[in-house]
Design a protein that fits this description.
single chain; 256 residues; alpha+beta; 4-stranded antiparallel β-sheet; 4 strands; 58% helix; 12% strand; rod-shaped; disordered C terminus
């Protein structure tokens, strides 16, 4: 039995017609309503017919059997599908339309096997509206990013100034230091001002000492020196003047 069946199957296979390449039908464009029926999508349908073994030389829809019936069925499915989507969502409408066309492809099989694919687009009016909306959204995001950057930069500058002022507060030379940082060429003038200030300080110190001496003319000199030693040394240190060493103080206060 097997020996008889094998040659028979071989002869049947040899007599099978060669498969024909798919036939691409000329695209068809239709207007399909969007949700709300205010606007229409522009839908382009691409149909491909695959022969079931029958040789054919047809290239146009009027030469391919079933082409018109397939087109009418596809248009019905497209219209019912796109109505579910806003005109601003062509991508979602296209995906849903192609899923629906693929689902019904089996029911459109007759002499030919059919595959239908759709491309969904929007009218130019909607494209311009979408472009304007996108630009407004981009401007809003750009303004928000710029504001955040301005806030961050301002806070960083504030922190630097705060640290700087905290460092210089209490410094006797802060004014001159800032001048030099901004204008280094003022160095000779600033040095002259410092020398003059030091000389004025020395004159004031001498005046203060003379005034104190006059007050204590009737007071024992030794007691005066001992009681004012700390005050005088602190004053000299603040003015940046040399402070005498302590080696000879024992001559005044006595040895312990």
């Amino acid at each position: 039995m097997r020996k008889w069946l094998a040659p028979m199957l071989y002869r049947v296979q040899q007599n099978q017609p060669e498969a024909e390449p798919p036939i691409d039908i000329e695209p068809f464009v239709l207007s399909s309503p969007a949700k709300g029926d205010a606007y229409d999508f522009s839908v382009t349908l691409f149909r491909t017919a695959t022969s079931g073994g029958k040789r054919t030389s047809a290239l146009f829809s009027d030469e391919v059997p079933e082409a018109e019936a397939v087109l009418q069925r596809a248009c019905q499915e497209v219209r019912s599908t796109t109505r579910r989507f806003e005109i601003t969502a062509p991508g979602a409408a296209e995906q849903a339309t192609n899923e629906r066309l693929q689902a019904i492809s089996g029911s459109m099989t007759g002499v030919y096997r059919w595959a239908v694919r759709a491309e969904v687009d929007v009218p130019e009016e909607i494209r311009q509206l979408n472009r304007a909306a996108h630009k407004r959204q981009h401007d809003i995001r750009a303004d928000a990013d710029a504001a955040l950057l301005r806030i961050k930069s301002t806070d960083e500058v504030r922190q630097e100034w705060q640290d700087f002022l905290t460092t210089v507060v209490g410094s006797a030379q802060v004014e001159h230091a800032i001048k030099l940082a901004v204008s280094p060429e003022q160095l000779p003038q600033i040095i002259a001002e410092l020398v003059e200030q030091r000389q004025q300080g020395a004159q004031q110190l001498l005046g203060t000492v003379d005034s104190i001496m006059q007050r204590y003319e009737t007071v024992d000199m030794l007691n005066f020196v001992v009681s004012n030693e700390t005050v005088l040394r602190r004053t000299l240190e603040l003015l940046g003047l040399p402070v005498p060493p302590l080696e000879d103080d024992t001559l005044l206060v006595g040895r312990a």
